[in-house]
Amino acid sequence: PESPPPPYSRLSPNDEQKPLDLSDSTLSYTETEATNSPNITPGDFSDASTSPDAVKRSHWCNVAYWEHRTRVGRLYTVYEQSVSIFYDLPQGNGFCLGQLNLENRSETVRRTRSKIGYGILLSKEPDGVWAYNRSEHPIFVNSPTLDIPNCRTLIVRKVMPGYSIKVFDYEKSCLLQHTADLDYADGPYDPNSVRISFAKGWGPCYSRQFITSCPCWLEILLSNNR
């Protein structure tokens, strides 16, 4: 089949983080895929929302890329079941962060961008949304369904290279919809959003208290229950 099962379908569902099988064809970009992919020119990137077929389908999330407090580029709309979010290796299908231009980037942001590499693979599954760390550096994740219910302490999970994590659990999300809204010090709270930082962590255990202090991070805006 064109889209073989993801590697985690062969692993125990009990583990919060699971090792990534890099030999799986779904995670390996081939020359054929690169050839069939739209050409990406500097200052632009492949966007699934531009295809005629995509208009007929509903999207399941939008992805925003941020550098500190500045959003860079437009929202990337995801229609397919999975999407690769990477820097510039390879020049294939997905959200290419290296093509997003911004003047006067700080040296800290430039260094962090160079660590994104193959980035992450974001996949929508029946039980929730999974993120695979395909880079050579850790990623850091915060999500409403990863937090402890009714706990006011921000929980940020560190995911090492080659591992995956369920960043959003649909069942837990339904339960959370009935809980009281909490006041968060770092801004408005969205029960259907996931935040992922590349290479740099934030929260109580780090010098960066808020994700807006991280050089390069993603905001995954899920369309479920919206």
TrEMBL record:
Residues 1-52 are annotated as: Disordered. It holds the Pfam family MH2. GO terms for biological process: anatomical structure morphogenesis; BMP signaling pathway; cell differentiation; regulation of transcription by RNA polymerase II; SMAD protein signal transduction. The keyword Transcription regulation applies. GO terms for cellular component: heteromeric SMAD protein complex. InterPro entries: Dwarfin, SMAD-like_dom_sf, SMAD_dom_Dwarfin-type, SMAD_FHA_dom_sf. It comes from Ciconia maguari. Residues 60-226 form the MH2 domain. PROSITE patterns: MH2 (PS51076). This is SMAD6 protein. Keywords: Transcription, Transcription regulation. It comes from the Eukaryota. GO terms for molecular function: I-SMAD binding; transcription regulator inhibitor activity. The keyword Transcription applies. SUPFAM superfamilies: SMAD/FHA domain. Residues 23-40 have a biased composition (Polar residues).
